[in-house]
Write a structure and sequence with these properties.
heterodimer; A: mainly alpha; two-stranded antiparallel sheet; 2 strands; globular; B: 323 residues; mainly alpha; ABC transporter involved in vitamin B12 uptake, BtuC; two-stranded antiparallel ribbon
């Protein structure tokens, strides 16, 4: 197998992995703070992808620009979902929360099937097939842009949590729910904010992802599972872990597609998930509880 | 069991026994589907409802159970009465392996649920590439002669399948009511409510959780065998898909997790409502793909929000029907 092919596939895998990482970051932030597993995560991602397709077909909006309004809309959606639907469930048993999100996911994925039909949709932008060349090594422009956007968004989120007072308050809720309430933090509002932020992450990731793959309603559950794999491999609740896990999975998918069989690539991810769950259940970057 | 529930149960039994003589083939197929979902829901309920272990990968056992029996029938002509045992053995082995790994390594709650999904997805992709069972192209059994009964190979008219799944559901109900009153049932209850406390009382929680997984996977394997010979075609994409697992758990959740009649009532309510909705929408000319699942989702959402214990417990209380 020619070396330059392997290098090119590796680069593409790492770049895609960064977008995966942003998607998983949303899930990880939500779980780390609210302690609710967002089983509708991949479905939200596909909704964002459809939103980007719609904005592009209707008004020719570039997905990179679309990421801003879509991200904002998802922030609001996430806030409302947490405030209206999930907050009453925080004190319910785990499986009860899980089923609630399964129901939401079921409605979302089939709602999209009803609205858009089963056919694959995509966007055709001017620079879709352009790339920078460094000798035999290619950097696809959309992939590089998408990865850069994903990194920038993650960076902003890091900053928000480290440098702002609200970010600090959210971290306090995550550390000690009771303590946060005792010092007078509005935990429900902060939880809703967090869910909104996680949703915005996944929405921006979705706008990037539409540059790389076609969207069908059925992508939802598989992205949910992918986000889980990444987050668990990286360590639930760890932000750097999510990004690292994303790159790792993106890379392994790309290489498995090259060396084994494209259709078997996700088997590798599930295998990795099983191994991590068994031997390092807190994930690669997670703290032992 | 109260006297009133005895009478109602007898009436229900008589109704179900007489059903194939009074309804048309379509309604019979709906009834078969209800019983199939009731049975698989009951099997899932042993793990989640009784022992508190949330599995979201039960399609794994349906799939493996179906594929094993169908494949050896397809390749070697060995009928399901023998194949069933192989299906059960394999599913029990897989279930025990998952349970062993999870419980030994201390995986519980959401992580356990994710592990079960991971295993069923792993098998789905595996069967997609397994040429012996037709890969992603599917495995097809020769469609049965609908007018003659071949019990040995479990081929025959729809009514035969109906009675088969009816007897399975009834046996599962009796078996589960026995389980609930047995030592295992009480140990499971203790584990479900507070595992640490159960352990402190000297219950070997590992062993009893394993028992729940083994029983549940064995029961589900039989459902798989039924599925294979009733529907005659198997595709990994369909049978192992996570939406199948969700379909299995919907009945017990709607009906009432951990109750005996919950899975049956839930399966009946959901299937009748969903088919009714499909009929009504069809009559209106609104045949949109996905609408049935949206409806499932909304019902599930409403039940979880307003009736967290399902619809059976409040009904049973109101009419004095016991568990």
């Amino acid at each position: 197998m020619p070396l330059d092919l392997v290098v090119n596939v590796t680069i593409a895998g790492v770049l895609t992995g960064m977008v995966y990482g942003l998607m998983a970051l949303g899930l990880s932030v939500i779980f780390g703070v609210v302690r609710v597993v967002n089983f509708a995560h991949g479905e939200m991602m596909t909704i964002a992808m459809y939103a980007a397709v719609a904005l592009f077909t209707l008004w020719g909006v570039d997905p990179f620009l679309a990421a801003i309004p879509v991200g904002a809309a998802f922030f609001a959606l996430g806030y409302l979902m947490q405030a209206g639907l999930i907050n009453p469930f925080i004190t319910r048993p785990e499986h009860s929360q899980f089923m609630l999100m399964v129901a939401v996911a079921l409605i979302m994925v089939n709602g999209m099937l009803m609205a858009f039909g089963p056919d694959a949709r995509n966007v055709q932008i001017g620079y879709q097939l352009e790339s920078w060349e460094l000798g035999k090594i290619l950097f696809d422009k959309p992939r590089v842009y998408a990865a850069a956007m994903a990194l920038a968004t993650s960076g902003l989120l890091f900053l928000f949590f480290k440098a702002t007072l609200v970010g600090k308050a959210i971290r306090a809720c995550a550390d000690n729910y009771l303590g946060a309430r005792v010092v007078g933090l509005n935990v429900k509002h902060l939880y809703a904010l967090t869910f909104g932020l996680g949703s915005a992450c996944v929405a921006i990731a979705g706008c990037m992802m539409i540059l790389l793959v076609d969207v069908t309603p059925n992508l939802g559950p598989s992205y949910t599972l992918l986000a889980f794999i990444i987050v668990i491999v990286g360590g639930l609740g760890s932000m750097t872990g999510a990004l690292l896990g994303g790159v790792l999975i993106g890379l392994s998918e790309a290489l498995a597609g090259l060396f084994i069989q494209p259709s078997a690539k996700s088997m590798f991810g599930f295998g990795l998930l099983i191994l991590v769950l068994l031997f390092r259940p807190q994930g690669l970057m997670g703290k032992k509880s | 069991m109260t006297p009133r529930s005895r009478i109602l149960l007898a009436l229900l039994g008589a109704f179900l026994l007489a059903l194939p003589w009074v309804v048309n083939p379509y309604l019979l197929s709906v009834a078969t589907l209800i019983l199939y979902l009731a049975y698989t829901g009951q099997a899932w309920n042993v793990m989640m409802g009784f022992a508190g272990q949330l599995s979201l990968g039960h399609s794994l056992y349906v799939g493996v159970g179906a594929y094993v029996s169908a494949a050896i029938f397809f390749h070697y002509g060995i009928g399901p009465w023998a194949g069933m045992w192989l299906s059960i053995a394999l599913c029990v082995a897989i279930g025990a392996a998952i349970g062993f790994l999870a419980f030994r390594f201390g995986i519980s709650g959401v992580y356990f649920a994710l592990l079960t999904i991971a295993f069923s997805e792993f098998f789905r992709i595996g069967f997609d590439h397994l040429q012996w069972t037709g890969g992603s192209g599917g495995l097809f059994l020769k469609v049965a002669q609908r007018d003659q009964i071949d019990l040995g190979n479990f081929r025959g008219p729809p009514a035969m399948y109906y009675y088969a799944i009816l007897s399975l559901t009834v046996s599962a109900l009796i078996f589960c009511s026995f389980l609930l009153k047995s030592k295992a049932g009480y140990y499971w209850l203790a584990i479900r409510e507070n595992e640490e406390a159960a352990q402190a009382l000297g219950i070997n929680t590992f062993r009893w959780k394993m028992l729940a997984v083994v029983i549940s996977s064995a029961m589900t394997a039989v459902a798989g065998v039924f599925f294979a010979f009733y529907y005659n075609n198997l595709f990994p994409e369909q049978i192992f898909h996570i939406s199948r697992s969700i379909e299995i758990i919907l009945g017990p959740i709607i009906g009432g997790v951990g109750t005996l009649f919950g899975p049956i009532l839930g399966a009946a309510v959901l299937t009748i409502l969903a088919d009714g909705i499909t009929e009504i929408l069809g009559a209106l000319g609104w045949e949109i793909p996905g609408i049935k699942q949206v409806f499932y989702g909304i019902v599930m959402l409403l039940v979880i929000m307003f009736l967290p214990h399902g619809i059976w417990p409040p009904l049973a209380r109101k009419f004095g029907l016991g568990k």
